[in-house]
Amino acid sequence: MKKLILILFLLIPLSVFSQNIDVDILKHINSVEPRYQDHFFRFISNSDAIISFGVPTGMALAGLIAKNKTLTRNGCEAFAAVGITTVFTMGVKYSVNRQRPFNKYPGIIVNHTYKSIRDPSFPSGHTSIAFSLATSLSMQYPNWYIVAPAYIWAGTVGYSRMELGAHYPIDVLGGAFTGTTLTYLTHKLNIIK
């Protein structure tokens, strides 16, 4: 647990010192001009909350209907992990208070989300909850046909946030780390019994 806290506190200053690297990488991913793939990445980016909260809710409801205690418990555990990740991520966002890349570098980084985004940048909330769900499902159902699609989807959500100009690469890495770590702890601590 001490190592986890140390790593998290090292990630925050790293995001400040790696600003130039972040911007350089992001300039190669984000385009000033709209691209045809922006529609796909907006769709993927907007799927995060629906899937991250919908899948666990569906699992819990299906378990209740089928009287399958394991499925109900797994759904509740995944929902709890995503909820804890969401709250923690928002707390870190406002503690770090990193400006969005499209606000800090207008004309260089463009917001292709076509939404007004007011919350801070680090870590990526979309990425953290996507990785939270992927980690929860992979721990509960460790089969390649669950793990691979879950992490491909989560990774695509993270990439989409950079493609759309909403996050720096370190924000996405921080989100993936946050979602994965908090979900692992939720699962190991047996919060839902």
- Secondary structure: helix percent: over 70%
Report the uncertain regions. none
- The number of helical runs is 8
User: What gap, in angstroms, lies between the N and C termini?
Assistant: 21 Å
Query: What percent of residues are in strands?
Result: under 5%
Name of the CATH first level: Mainly Alpha
**Major sheet characteristics:** none
CATH architecture: Orthogonal Bundle
The average pLDDT value, as a whole number, equals 85
Content-based structural category: mainly alpha
CATH domain topology: Vanadium-containing Chloroperoxidase, domain 2
What does this structure look like?
The chain is mainly α and 193 residues long. It has a single domain, classed as Vanadium-containing Chloroperoxidase, domain 2. It has eight helices and no strands. Helix 3 runs antiparallel to helix 7 and helix 6 runs antiparallel to helix 7. The longest helix is centred in the first third of the chain and has 29 residues. The chain starts with a helix and ends in a 5-residue tail after the last helix. The relative contact order is 0.19.
Pick out its properties.
193 residues, mainly alpha, Vanadium-containing Chloroperoxidase, domain 2
Would you summarize the structure shown here?
With 193 residues, the chain is an all-alpha fold.
